[in-house]
Design goal:
The complex is a heterodimer of chains A (about 180) and B (about 110).
Chain A (H helix, E strand, L loop, with lengths): L1 H9 L1 H30 L5 H16 L6 E5 L2 E5 L5 E3 L6 H15 L3 H31 L2 H32 L4
Helix pairs in contact in A: 2-4, 3-5, 4-5, 4-6, 5-6
Chain B lengths: L7 H29 L4 H4 L1 H21 L4 H17 L4 H21 L1
Classes of the chains: A mainly alpha (about 180), B mainly alpha (about 110).
Chain lengths: ~180, ~110
């Protein structure tokens, strides 16, 4: 017990980081779960999945997927050309990963305007990376061949996790830019 | 209780290696699911799910051990990542990495002060 108390005394900043991380993570996760419950009761699709699908559709078109179709239902969206459609479910919208990103930012910086601003912008930036991931996937699927499977299995997992880690690495620079000592 | 800190190079070698290995494990399960013709084999095959979860935890523990964490710290951090994972699927690895990155940042800030 003494060793544990000694450890806690030596690691107070880390414990505060973990505390803020968990409070933010659970707060945002509960809000999102309540929102999902609300849209389910309304018989609707959540707006995050909707906008990620729409952004992916626009990106796929910009990448040259001709006649790219886009249809959303209660359980998710289908984007792509008939026969080559990608199904975008709620779990693919990247928001849970974005919530972990936000929890880290608040865990490090605390509840101040700089962290809240970074959290809000970061949530959008992670979604932006996700749109690039899914939009590229639709374009690759349209092209056919092994590239789609290669990217789906190997590249895009690293891409989305890597984007979060890179954003965390940029945090001290953004803090300096925002005028924090 | 003196803490042993690893260099930035060692930290990133372990972190990137751990992330890659963890993703590789998910890819293997994805391949197996694809071959079996199901969405996710882990949902139907309980022994495979137990093996997969055990390997994920083992990789996490090895990662923390590589970063010179004590046994109690490893248990606590694995518990933290499991708690996060419980509410958001696919976040076990990134939660562990977040904890270790966060620890480096707050300890560095403490040293500067």
């Amino acid at each position: 017990m003494n060793a544990l108390l000694q450890w806690a005394a030596n690691n107070r900043p880390f414990l505060f980081f973990i505390g803020r991380f968990l409070i933010t993570f659970f707060g945002l996760s509960i809000l999102y779960a309540l929102y999902l419950k609300y849209v389910e009761l309304e018989g609707d699709l959540d707006l995050v999945t909707y906008w990620v699908s729409r952004g992916s559709h626009e990106l796929a078109r910009a990448l040259g997927v001709a006649d790219c179709e886009w249809a959303c239902f209660m359980d998710g969206c289908y984007v792509g050309r008939p026969g080559h459609m990608v199904n975008i479910l709620e779990g693919c919208n990247g928001l849970k990963l974005a919530i972990v990103y936000a929890a880290y930012v608040i865990g490090i910086g605390g509840w101040n305007w700089r962290s809240l601003l970074q959290m809000a912008v970061g949530l959008v930036v992670v979604q932006f990376f996700n749109v690039i991931r899914i939009g590229s996937l639709i374009a690759l699927r349209d092209g056919g061949g092994d590239m789609y499977f290669y990217f789906l299995k190997y590249v895009f997992g690293v891409w989305i996790y890597g984007s979060v880690i890179v954003l965390w690495l940029l945090k001290p620079r953004i803090d300096r830019w925002l005028g924090q000592k | 209780m003196a803490r042993t800190e690893v260099s930035a190079r060692v930290f990133w070698a372990w972190t990137i290696g751990y992330l890659m290995l963890s993703i590789l494990l998910s890819i293997i399960v994805g391949e197996q699911s694809h071959e079996a013709g199901v969405h996710n084999l882990l949902e139907t095959n309980v022994p495979l799910n137990v093996l997969y979860s055990g390997l994920k935890i083992l990789f996490g523990a090895i990662y923390l051990w590589g970063l010179k964490r004590s046994t109690l710290e490893i248990i606590g951090l694995i518990g933290f990542a499991l708690l996060v994972r419980l509410f958001a699927e696919g976040t076990f690895t990134i939660a562990l990495i977040a904890a270790m990155m966060g620890e480096r940042v707050v300890q560095a800030a403490k040293t500067i002060k």
